[in-house]
Design a protein that fits this description.
The structure is a single chain. By secondary structure, the chain is α/β, with parallel strands linked by helices. The protein is built from 6 helices and 7 strands. A 5-stranded mixed beta sheet has the order 5-4-3-6-7, with helices on both faces. A two-stranded antiparallel sheet has the order 1-2. A hairpin with a 5-residue loop joins β1 and β2.
């Protein structure tokens, strides 16, 4: 049973890494012109999935603690190059819009030790959860049908999913979405 779980994890991570590498190597013109709302229309406008997960400091965090805020829920992993690339942007967005009601939440598909090292190295100060399979399942509930990393869901102040993005988010795109929700 344990070997089957390890084998499944290896396959999941290899697939996600392959997808991320493919997205990194393709030029923007090579990517299909699919708007996230079309690709994942089943979650847009729906209430965000609930979760209670332990953060890397051992505290149970519930999505309900941020009710009334605009949420940027980011699914990532420490071994994911596009995730590494967008981390400074997420820190910047939290700093820029935090006082206006934005809360960035990092949900890592990774082990706690790797996540803690990543957080310490990159100076992440927003809440971060490490959950491996539990986080990947939550990402699917937030609309990640292709197991992409990074994957970001924007949640409005009413708790409804307003927008989602598979792959790395760009600064102008993120700011435009956030400003429309604040």
């Amino acid at each position: 049973m344990k070997k089957a779980i390890i084998y499944s994890l290896v396959l999941l991570f290899a697939g996600a890494a392959g997808f991320g590498l493919q997205r990194m190597l393709l030029k923007p013109d090579d990517l299909p012109a699919i708007h996230p709302a079309q690709e994942f229309s089943t979650v847009i406008g729906k209430t965000r999935p609930e979760f209670e997960l332990e953060d890397i400091d051992g505290h149970v965090r519930s999505v309900r603690e941020w009710d009334g805020k605009v949420l940027l829920v980011n699914f990532w992993a420490s071994w994911c190059p596009p995730c590494l690339k967008e981390t400074p942007l997420l820190i910047e967005l939290q700093n820029k819009f935090g006082e206006q009601g934005l809360q960035v939440i990092g949900l890592a598909v990774d082990d706690e030790e790797s996540v803690r090292d990543f957080v310490d190295t990159h100076g992440i100060h927003y809440p971060v959860v490490a959950g491996e399979l539990a986080v990947m399942e939550l990402a699917r509930r937030y609309g990640n049908r292709v197991d992409a990393l990074p994957f970001t869901a924007f949640v409005d102040r009413n708790g409804d999913i307003a927008q989602i993005k598979a792959g790395e988010i760009e600064k102008t795109e993120a700011e435009k979405i956030i400003q429309s929700l604040l």
